[in-house]
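Regression test case RT-17, inverse folding.

Input:
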């Protein structure tokens, strides 16, 4: 008995297109994910990183949120959206998501070889406080949180919105852990001063 991969792909893709408001949001996120993973090989050598057990503090809410965020969870639960966006609403949401993921790419490209998917101290690591890092300390998280929350609201299911909130909380927790780690690794005078000067996630707020 041969495995029909095309049928599996059809079922998987159908989950996104039938549960989410349009194929547009699914296409945007899947394109971002593919490009992000594809570029993960471009990073500098790691000198030190947070241990796996410690990283569970932010990985767990992101994992649970990711499961809730997918359309298959709503499908299994037989969940219906609380509201349905008009085409205009979906297009506005798509623009917000595109702006968010564009901000993530600006942050990643500006960070260059210092970027990592985990909390690490890269070789020759230094404080980057220009470009998007002069607006917020974690532009990648800012862009993702904005895009996730907008998408969750557009999808309109309780699980999608709860998933987006959990992912956002996980990213906030990761950002806090990263700052404690980098303050120790790069020095309180350098990274600590940066934290006191630039907002963490939300632009234009007082730094905390």
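Golden output:
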């Amino acid at each position: 008995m041969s495995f029909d991969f095309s049928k599996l792909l059809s079922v998987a893709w159908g989950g996104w297109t039938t549960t989410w408001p349009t194929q547009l949001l699914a296409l945007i996120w899947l394109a971002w994910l593919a490009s992000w993973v594809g570029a993960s090989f471009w990073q500098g050598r790691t000198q030190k990183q947070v241990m796996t057990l410690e990283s569970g503090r932010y990985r767990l809410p992101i994992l649970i949120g990711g499961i809730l965020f997918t359309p298959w969870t709503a499908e299994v639960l037989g969940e219906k959206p609380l509201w349905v966006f008009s085409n205009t609403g979906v297009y506005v949401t798509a623009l917000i998501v595109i702006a968010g993921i564009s901000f993530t790419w600006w942050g990643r490209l500006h960070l260059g070889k210092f970027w990592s998917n985990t909390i690490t101290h890269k070789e020759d690591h230094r404080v980057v406080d220009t470009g998007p890092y002069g607006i917020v300390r974690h532009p990648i998280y800012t862009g993702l949180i904005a895009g996730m929350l907008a998408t969750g609201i557009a999808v309109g299911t309780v699980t999608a919105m709860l998933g987006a909130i959990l992912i956002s909380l996980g990213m906030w927790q990761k950002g806090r852990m990263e700052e404690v780690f980098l303050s120790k690794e790069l020095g309180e005078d350098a990274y600590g001063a940066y934290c006191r000067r630039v907002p963490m996630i939300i632009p234009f707020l007082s730094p905390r």
